[in-house]
Design brief:
single chain; 482 residues; alpha+beta; five-stranded mixed beta sheet; five-stranded antiparallel beta sheet; binds ligand MTE; binds molybdenum atom
């Protein structure tokens, strides 16, 4: 006997709808787990591969036309795409199971058994781990990602199972409603009592699933935080491009006399006003300082690993340094100045014994799978530091807590945040943005910005009007503004 007859199209559509619903919830769960327990974020992995794959001319064009919001649109686009893939999975699953015999995953009313959900989860899990992730450069089951293969395997399994089981639940629920609406004659075999029974089962299963999911997430969080209380103190950081108001008072001016002019941005940007840029589409890493480690290896005599405490115990120096994003437009807001405290990169390399002959570059790897390299000569400059503090405070999470590179004279992208590894090499390593067509040496070009007066303000005739702003030229200095 075959299940109630539906056309292939009807079957596909029903599966597509159920898959879409389950896919939206599973996607939300994936993002939640990526934020809370270091689970995998497939949209992030895909986005990274996507920006690498498109020609740099297309990238440039999109960047120019959409601007700073580009990464958010990209993220939303990918999210929608992921939900559609889930929906497609549901549709195809329904086509396959729907043509099976009754008893093989489907009953006479066309309802799916939970085993179908588990099988679907398994198939998606294998496809993602063995094909999708290697294709986007994340390695088999995310082996190349910082979160590691265990987190990838587990989080993919949880998301897959949530999707598969929800798919079955939603699909069966829709079917029940459908049978009621369209085939009143079926009510005899599929009575009112049975329907409300089904509804109760669905609610109960849903609650169990939710409970198990919550327990799992909590348990995992407990394990991955080493059983202790987790995390660094969260410091809220505004989105990039927020105004330049409410600056802290400038330090003792040492660039010559400064005329105080209303609306002129202050010399030092407060931490919560400092521009923020990262490649991450959804969530920047939230590194736990107590478990964090920094490895120094590669072409050095004695590779070693440091804890946050070890690093804090090393000699620190203080300096003012301006960061500017390479994609800052003239007059743009991706440029800020702060006082930094940190350990000289040269000191960290010295601690590893000598740098071996032939070494040419130093590569910095980060907790968000970002990386970049600088030349060894640049790395050894006394102003190149691994910064731990910003404007007298612990480095905020958004600016690279626990440690970020500060390398004066070159654009922001080389100032790697959330550093986990420093590797000396003789290869011409190309970093995250270099593989996407951006400059490798990346020296800052001279730029300026007029803070006041801004467009559409009135100036009074016969009264002096100050025109004030900032000029920046990396570490070359500005000799005059005309
Ligand atoms: N780990 C990591 N470091 C990173 C980035 C990133 O995406 N990941 N973005 C870079 C870019 S493009 C810039 S402009 C600066 C911005 O630093 P800020 O957010 O502290 O201003 O960080 C750089 N360091
Ligand atoms: Mo940048």
């Amino acid at each position: 006997m075959h299940p109630i007859h539906f056309s292939r199209k009807q079957r596909f559509n029903a599966g597509f709808i159920a898959g879409l619903g389950a896919g939206v919830i599973a996607t939300a769960l994936m993002l939640l787990m990526s934020v809370t327990v270091g689970g995998i974020s497939l949209p992030e992995a895909f986005g990274s591969a996507f920006t690498e794959a498109i020609p740099s001319s297309v990238f440039d064009y999109l960047h120019r036309t959409i601007g700073g919001d580009a990464k958010h649109y990209l993220f939303y686009g990918i999210l929608v795409g992921q939900c559609l893939v889930f929906a497609l999975g549901g549709g195809i699953c329904n086509l396959i199971v729907g043509s099976a015999k009754v008893g093989r995953g489907i009953d006479a009313q066309g309802r799916l058994s939970w085993q179908v959900g588990v099988t679907l989860a398994l198939v998606l899990w294998l496809l993602t781990g063995l094909i999708f992730l290697p294709l986007v450069g994340a390695g088999v089951f995310g082996a190349a990602l910082t979160i590691g293969v265990v987190n990838s395997v587990l989080s993919l399994a949880v998301v897959g199972l949530a999707f598969g089981l929800l798919f079955v639940l939603i699909q069966n629920w829709l079917l029940t409603r459908r049978l009621h609406a369209q085939k009143p004659e079926l009510k005899e075999s599929f009575g009112e009592a049975e329907a409300s029974d089904t509804r109760r089962t669905i609610v109960r299963n849903g609650l169990i699933l939710l409970g198990l999911g919550t327990l799992g997430v909590l348990g995992w969080r407990f394990i991955s935080s080493g059983g202790g209380s987790s995390g660094s103190t969260a410091v809220s950081v505004p989105a990039a491009g927020q105004g330049f108001q409410n600056k802290v008072a400038p330090p003792k001016p040492d660039y010559g006399a400064i005329q105080s002019v209303p609306h002129l941005s202050s010399e030092v940007t407060a931490n919560d006003q400092f521009y923020v840029v990262s490649k991450n589409l959804f969530q920047d890493p939230n590194v736990n300082g107590t478990t964090w480690k920094l490895t120094v290896d590669g072409l050095v005599e004695r590779p070693y690993t440091l804890t946050y405490n070890d690093l804090q115990a090393m000699p620190m120096q203080k300096q003012y340094e301006t960061l500017e994003c390479i994609s800052n437009e003239v007059g743009g807001s991706y440029m800020s100045n702060a006082q930094w405290e940190g350990v000289q990169l040269a000191e960290l390399l010295k601690r590893a014994g000598n740098v071996k002959p032939g070494a040419t570059k130093v590569v910095l790897y980060a907790a968000d799978d970002y990386s970049d390299s600088i030349h060894l000569s640049k790395a050894l400059e006394p102003t190149t530091v691994v910064a731990l503090r910003m404007n007298g405070q612990t480095l905020p999470p958004g600016h690279g807590y626990p440690a970020r590179l500060l390398v004066p004279g070159i654009y922001g992208m080389k100032h790697v945040k959330w550093i986990t590894r420093i590797q000396v090499t003789n290869q011409d390593y190309q970093g995250y943005w270099q593989t996407r067509g951006w400059s490798d040496p990346a020296p800052v070009r001279i730029t300026s910005r007029i803070d006041t007066p801004v467009g559409n303000t009135n100036v009074t005739v016969n009264k002096p009007t100050y025109v004030a702003g900032v000029a920046f030229s990396g570490n070359q200095g500005i000799s005059a503004v005309q």
